UniProtKB/TrEMBL annotation:
Keywords: Cell membrane, Glycoprotein, Leucine-rich repeat, Membrane, Receptor, Repeat, Signal, Transmembrane, Transmembrane helix. The lineage of its organism: Eukaryota, Viridiplantae, Streptophyta, Embryophyta, Tracheophyta. It is found in: Cell membrane. It is a single-pass type I membrane protein. Pfam families: LRR_1, LRR_8, LRRNT_2. Belongs to the RLP family. It comes from Populus davidiana. Residues 1-27 form the signal peptide. One of its GO terms (cellular component) is plasma membrane. Residues 44-83 form the Leucine-rich repeat-containing N-terminal plant-type domain. Its main location: membrane. This is Leucine-rich repeat-containing N-terminal plant-type domain-containing protein. SMART domains: LRR_TYP.
Length: 1007
């Protein structure tokens, strides 16, 4: 053995020995902390606490004017603990926050000075102590002056970020609580990188953004991690190791995405998993059913598909809550879920589950809530459900169950409070549910022809939904119970009675109905009576319902004026659309409205409201949705709308407005629709301030301006409709590298645009370059708007040759319409990169040259219209590859030769080719001359040249950075000349694999 090696080993042994002694001393200080009250504190510790107390500031009303009596032993103070040597090891000021909301703050928060003599602290708890004046410096200071910390809790301490990597220097740290500090912002990649002792991390409600370092999930001792309610925080799971200690994994309402890795089965100790309201997709790992310690599982509001894991009694005996709602789960629902011994909550609503529910034995006696609404379940409702003894809530709305169903079957479930059934024939009699007192009963579309008599015995009912039945006549007075707060009768031709319940009386005064039964006046908060065939003027009885929050009287035959007393209520949602109102009382002057602090949704569309825009609406400081489309409003759209801070949806379509104020645009708008008015002049540049805008529809006006290139500054824009205006000049901007990253519907038709369709413009349409395989699920534009789930974003486009009004716009739908303009030149080869296009309309322009064969790369294309142009030459046989193509119009060009035969081309009519006198062959009756060659059979996918892939890569690269373009261009040139066989084979093989994968995915999507 060499001497130098021996000396190294001796030094290493001494180092490890000293480290172990140091750790032992720290452990000793911790173990003696509970005995602190028996030891007198040191003078330097008392001095440090006195200085700290001097810098603490209480609310004036606080009863805790002083924390400690400085004349007593500091080790006996509340919130303080010491070790045997009299050093403070614990400081907890969280108790200073009382039930009245009084808290303390540091007037001069120089943490370094205050804590410099408290270096033996192993636990610091300053929850609810405001140290905001420290700025973002707190992180470095605490890491430097308190190196022995094991527990650091600064919840709701008004901290600001970003978080620093120096917290990794706290090598003994086992618990870190920084939750409810809303301005911590970003996390450095090296955050907590070496925290091998960390067991608890709480960063919930911190306003975090950016990417979360996923190596933190792999810390060996980590048991609890909560990142919930950081909606801008993104990240993905790593591959979990076999020795993971994680028990609680909470990511609710973050932007974490991707698949859940199969290695999640390694989390053998996992008790709580909450990934709700994230962006995860793919299949739920079946191995979740093998996590035997699991107690709580919430994967709701994601994009998961496939089947539900096979949870069994013996596998997850402790599971008490299973929430998988609002996903795309499909397949058969295994009834064994209802038998899990500890299960209390089962929510599978809003999925695509299908098939019949089997009867089940050994029903769980613990099940309290069963939610299966909004699926495709069919067959009879299993009678086993009536044997769930503890059930409190049962929701089977909007499935395909068959009836009839007797309400008397629920008679033994006496704890039942919430019952919701729909689309089945429900049978009832006077005794139905007589032993069950419900709080909420929803029975829409259940074939009732009259108000069920059993409702007379429901004395605790607060919510009743009988909408979309076949009930006729007046609403009986016994319905109006004093407990009733929610009533939905929409879709029934019923009328309002003229009985005493609508008279405003003292709430202690009983009212007698026609049966002589006494009741008390109700105080409704929700009333839905749309499509009830109500005629005449505004119902007067509503005047007495001053507690109304939700009122829907849409699609009736009400007319005249909207009375001023309606604005004296505390309404949040008001829908009077599809009526015949022609006057807004009290709106003639811009005065303050009583409801201006409560109204969130105001829908008055499809009435007959005349005159100028009622400016008093601008005083609604909480207004989120305003729909006054399809009325007779005129003059200018006022600038006061731009001062409504919460406005996200503004729909003024179908009026007679003639101008838009330059400052009329609210910066938080998500959707702005002003189509089919008479707006003239230029487009207000203030639209560029609407950075969140997703939908902009200005079609059908008389706007005269150049193409608004500056709209490319709107990163969230998904739908742009400028059709039927007077826009002119070229489109796009060659001088910038801006893009449309999210745009998937662009309609510029029927304007006066000129010039070429440049390759730069095509490359800027980034949102049209991603195929449906890149979408985790079929989302709808506007589904994230907060509108009580009732607002549907819509648009009118030309699809497959016909004007089509789309009530809901799926994000997978991609459309480019440049028809009825004066574009000229050839279609650039770069058109091939718009791979997600489903509708391409270039008709009625002056495009010339040959139809590019690169259109065959648009494999998602369903409608192609190139009619009324100057195209020449033959129809490319490669278009036979467009197997989804349902409509193709090549009429009125200068095409010639034989029409390709095969696939979708067999389905196209003569009209697709008329106006091309030199075309021949089926479906035309014009036969081809013998000398006319058969069109070349398109090469099979696997025979495409490798140069086509290099060209495709080069085109996409050009849309992002010139450096990448140069790299691909040089590479292409070198490879073209060298023709290295092994490399071309490799490229061809890679291309085939990619194509096979894409075809498989498309097939699944179509299925």
């Amino acid at each position: 053995m060499h001497p130098i090696n021996l000396s190294h080993r001796v030094l290493l042994f001494l180092y490890l020995f000293l480290v172990s002694l140091y750790q032992a001393s720290i452990a000793s200080s911790l173990s003696t902390a509970p005995k602190a009250a028996h030891h007198r504190c040191r003078d330097d510790q008392r001095s440090a606490f006195a200085q700290l107390q001097e810098n603490l500031e209480f609310q004036v009303s606080s009863s805790k004017a002083e924390l400690w009596d400085l004349k007593t032993d500091c080790c006996s103070w509340e919130g303080v603990a010491c070790n045997d040597a009299g050093h403070a090891t614990r400081l907890d000021l969280s108790f200073a926050y009382d039930e009245y909301g009084d808290s303390i703050s540091l007037k001069k928060p120089n943490l370094g000075m205050l804590f410099q003599n408290l270096s033996f602290l192993v636990e610091l708890n300053l929850d609810n102590v405001n140290i905001s004046a420290q700025g973002s410096n707190w992180c470095e200071v605490i890491s430097h002056v308190l190196p022995n910390l094991r527990v650091l809790s600064l919840s709701a301490s008004s901290l600001s970020g970003p978080l620093c990597s120096s917290l990794s220097k706290l090598h003994f740290l086992s618990e870190l609580h920084l939750d409810s500090n809303y301005e911590l912002s970003s996390i450095p990649p090296s955050f907590l990188a070496n925290s091998s002792n960390l067991e608890t991390l709480d960063l919930s409600y911190c306003g975090l953004n950016g990417s979360f370092p996923n190596n933190i999930f792999l810390l060996p001792k980590l048991q609890y991690i909560d990142l919930s309610e950081n909606s801008l925080l993104s990240g993905q799971f790593p591959e979990f190791s076999l020795n993971s200690s994680i028990q609680h994994l909470l990511l609710k309402n973050t932007s974490f995405s991707g698949n859940i890795p199969l290695s999640i089965s390694n989390l053998k100790s996992l008790k709580e998993l909450d990934l709700s309201r994230c962006k995860f997709y793919g299949a739920i790992p079946q191995s979740l059913a093998n996590l035997t310690q699991l107690e709580y599982l919430d994967l709701s509001f994601n994009s998961f598909n496939g089947s539900i894991p096979p949870f069994q009694r013996d596998g997850v005996a402790n599971l008490s809550s299973l929430s998988l709602e609002h996903n795309q789960l499909n397949g058969i629902l295994n009834s064994s879920l209802f038998t899990l011994p500890s299960l209390q909550i089962l929510d599978l609503s809003s999925n695509q589950l299908s098939g019949q529910l089997d009867e089940f034995s050994d029903a769980s006696s613990s099940l309290l809530i069963l939610e299966l609404s909004f699926n495709n379940l069919s067959g009879s409702i299993p009678r086993s459900i009536f044997n769930l003894p503890s059930l409190i809530e049962l929701n089977l709305l909007y499935n395909k169950f068959s009836g009839p169903l007797k309400l008397g079957d629920f008679k033994n479930q006496r704890d039942l409070e919430f019952l919701a059934l729909s689309d089945v024939s429900v049978e009832s009699d006077n005794r139905s549910l007589s032993d069950v007192q419900l709080a909420t009963l929803y029975l829409p579309s259940c074939n009732f022809t009259e108000f069920p008599n059993f409702l007379k015995t429901q004395n605790t009912l607060t919510g009743l939904d009988l909408s979309n039945n076949r009930i006729q006549g007046y609403v009986p007075s016994w319905i109006w119970k004093s407990t009733l707060t929610t009533l939905y009768l929409s879709g029934n031709p019923v009328g309002f009675p003229k009985t005493p319940p609508f008279v405003k009386v003292n709430h202690s005064t009983p009212i007698y109905n026609e049966d002589g039964v006494s009741s008390f006046p109700m105080t409704l908060t929700n009333l839905g009576m749309s499509s009830c065939n109500i005629t005449g003027s505004f119902p007067e009885f509503i005047k007495n319902q001053e507690t109304l929050v939700f009122l829907d009287l849409s699609d009736n035959k009400l007319g005249g004026q909207i009375p001023k007393w309606i604005w004296n209520m505390s309404l949040k949602y008001l829908n009077l659309s599809w009526n015949k109102f022609d006057f807004l009382d009290q709106f003639s002057n811009p005065i303050s409205l009583p409801y201006s602090d409560t109204l969130i949704t105001l829908d008055l569309h499809a009435n007959q409201l005349p005159g100028s825009f009622p400016k008093a609406i601008c005083n609604c400081s909480q207004l989120t949705l305003l729909d006054m489309s399809h009325n007779q409003l005129r003059r200018e759209i006022p600038d006061c709308l731009g001062k409504v801070p919460t406005l996200t949806v503004l729909n003024l379509q179908g009026n007679n407005f003639d101008s838009i104020s330059s400052y009329a645009i609210a910066s938080n708008l998500l959707s702005l629709k002003i189509s089919d008015n008479k707006v003239e002049g230029k487009l207000p540049s203030s639209l560029a301030n609407c950075s969140k805008l997703e939908v902009l529809d200005l079609g059908g006006n008389m706007i005269r301006d150049t193409f608004p290139v500056w709209l490319e500054k709107l990163p969230a824009l998904k739908i742009l409709v400028l059709q039927a205006n007077k826009f002119y000049g070229p489109i796009g901007n060659r001088g910038t590298a801006t893009t449309w990253p999210m745009l998937h519907v662009m309609d510029l038709s029927s304007n006066e645009f000129t010039g070429n369709l440049s390759k730069e413009f095509v490359q800027s349409l980034v949102g049209m370059q991603l195929t449906s395989n890149n979408e985790s699920r079929a989302r709808y534009v506007g589904e994230n708007y907060y509108m009580n789930g009732r607002y549907k974003e819509s648009v009118t486009i030309t699809n497959k040759g016909q004007k089509m009004h789309m009530d809901r716009i799926i994000t997978l739908f991609t459309c480019l319409d440049l028809s009825n303009n004066s574009f000229h030149g050839e279609i650039p080869e770069e058109i091939r990169i718009l791979k997600s296009l489903k509708v391409l309309t270039l008709s009625h322009n002056n495009f010339l040259g040959q139809i590019p064969s690169s259109l065959s790369d648009l494999r998602e294309l369903e409608s192609l219209d190139l009619s009324s142009n100057l195209f020449s030459g033959e129809i490319p046989p490669q278009l036979l590859r467009l197997t989804f193509l349902a409509v193709m119009n090549l009429s009125y060009n200068h095409l010639e030769g034989r029409i390709p035969q095969g696939n979708q081309f067999f389905t196209f009519p003569n009209s697709s080719y008329e106006g091309n006198p030199r075309l021949c062959g089926p479906p035309l009756t014009r036969k081809c001359n013998p000398e006319v060659n058969e069109p070349a059979t398109p090469p099979a996918d696997h025979e495409d040249s490798w140069t086509e892939y290099i060209l495709d890569w080069k085109i996409v690269g050009m849309g992002y950075a010139s450096g990448i373009v140069i790299g691909f261009s040089v590479g292409y040139t070198i490879l073209s000349e060298m023709r290295i066989k092994w490399f071309t084979d490799l490229i061809r093989l890679a291309g085939n694999k990619e194509r096979w994968f894409n075809q498989g995915q498309r097939g699944l999507q179509r299925w």
